[in-house]
Amino acid sequence: MTDQEIYYGIAKKDNKTFQFLYNEHIGMIISLVQKNSGHKDDAMDLFQEGMIALWTNIKKEKFLLNKDIKISSYLYALCRNIWISKLRKAKNTKPIETLSNIESPIDGLDEMEENYNKINQLTGYLEKLNHSCQQLLKLFYYQKKSLKDIAAKMNFTEKTAKNNKYRCMKSLRALYEV
CATH for 125-177? Predict the structure, then answer.
């Protein structure tokens, strides 16, 4: 099937098109998942989520037929991003850095992966800080809590929360620069 046939088949929810995509690309998704802390069942679920995302993006015109991007590459990128999100949420024991060994069929994925690796590295440094600093920085940067809310939660004054945030960031920067 051509990309044009696939595109319009997905838009029409044509079962033959979905079956074709499954037959052609499930092996690639199984390989992705198994190389990165997953099992075949995870890959099957991931493929289904990727297909739903692909169909949704076509319906909402977030993905338009384009000669520069193959549908198979776009589907792979969707599945890969969903899998990275699942690994991040699950805090899986296998390091995320292993994802760097995956060939990226779309330009820009390598940059996203590099940024993700930096975030993963920064998270490792964050875990080296004392519990109080970890809690404060997570509340401020991840949960987007105000210093006033953090002070109340951690039994500080707002000024103490601000000073502690400064000290914790200084400690984090020192770890990062080593």
Answer: 1.10.10.10
